[in-house]
Specification:
- This protein is mainly alpha-helical.
- The chain is about 60% helix and about 5% strand.
- Strands 1-2 form a two-stranded antiparallel ribbon.
- Helix 4 packs antiparallel against helix 5.
- The longest helix is centred in the middle third of the chain and has 30 residues.
Length: about 140
């Protein structure tokens, strides 16, 4: 049995949109502030190079691995990915409905039905390829 295309798309979307890793059980409730000179602030910004400042400082202070730079998916791609996900859901619903109808006997598995299911499978593959190409993040230039 093949994995649900919606789950696949959802997982790929979540991966593409995740900008940084945060320990799930680490709750940071305390705020620490400190002053720096203009030169120190400039130096910090240069060293962060796309990484969130608090994450960079925390990594340096506590010897954590440096986080990946913040990545951005262009807004037009996000909107397109959203629409692609809706199309994927519709394709999956159609496939599920056809398979259920064939299973209970209300729809014979004719050549036309087989061709339609094959077309849906091909469309789903194209959808995944398009999603993958649109999900390529670009470095954030803050």
């Amino acid at each position: 049995m093949q994995p649900d295309p919606r789950t696949n798309l959802s997982n790929q979307l979540a991966l593409a949109l995740s900008n940084r890793k945060v320990e799930p059980d680490t709750k940071r409730e305390i705020t620490i502030t400190f002053r720096v000179s203009t030169a120190e602030k400039t130096r910090l910004e240069q060293r962060c190079n796309g990484v969130v400042q608090s994450d960079y400082i925390r990594a340096r202070l506590f010897d954590y691995p440096l986080p990946q730079p913040k990545l951005t998916i262009p807004e037009v791609n996000r909107q397109t990915i959203y629409e692609l996900k809706k199309i994927g859901n519709n394709l999956n619903q159609q496939t599920r409905a056809i398979n259920e109808a064939v299973k209970i006997g209300s729809q014979p598995l004719t050549n036309n039905v087989k061709e339609y299911l094959q077309t849906i499978k091909e469309l789903t593959a194209l959808l995944k390829q398009t999603h993958a190409s649109l999900s390529q993040p670009i470095p954030d230039e803050d």
